[in-house]
Design goal:
Strand 3 and strand 4 form a beta hairpin. 24% of the residues lie in helices and 28% in strands. The relative contact order is 0.17. The protein contains three helices and six strands. The chain is an alpha+beta fold. The chain has a single domain, classed as DNA repair protein MutS, domain I (MutS, DNA mismatch repair protein, domain I), CATH 3.40.1170. A six-stranded mixed β-sheet has the order 3-4-2-1-5-6, with helices on both faces.
């Protein structure tokens, strides 16, 4: 599972990766350290006390939006990685893919927009001819 996480994380190195594990989004390594500090959630670890201890933190998937909003407001990108197979029908590791990347530069989710602040969007189109 950690190999899968590291492979997906390498494709989204500039984002905090919300990695879906059952009913939670888990964050590992530096993402866990950063997210636990910004979100004020508990930092724990896998393989606690061993040489290969890995920092981790997690949040319930069904209440992820306020956590994503807080990270985006702090200037971070968040890559949301979902299970794309039914765990009940798969033997071994469930396939996962990033299904959404939320950035401070383009916030379109009404839960993340600040209702009493202006929210600007700019598009530039050049003549390629």
């Amino acid at each position: 599972m950690m190999r899968q996480y590291l492979e997906i994380k390498s494709q989204h190195a500039d984002s905090i990766l919300f990695f879906r594990l059952g009913d939670f989004y888990e964050m590992f390594l530096e993402d866990a350290v950063t997210a636990s500090r910004v979100l004020d959630i508990t930092l724990t670890s896998r393989n606690k006390g061993s040489e290969d201890e890995i920092p981790l933190c997690g949040i319930p998937f069904h209440s992820s939006q306020p956590y994503i909003a807080k990270l985006v407001a702090a200037g971070f990108k968040v890559a949301v990685c979902e299970q794309v197979e039914d765990p009940k029908t798969v033997k071994g590791i469930v396939k996962r893919e990033v299904v959404r990347v939320v950035t401070p530069g383009l916030v379109i989710d009404s839960d993340t927009l600040q209702p009493k602040q202006n929210n600007y969007l700019l598009a530039v189109c050049g003549d390629s001819g």
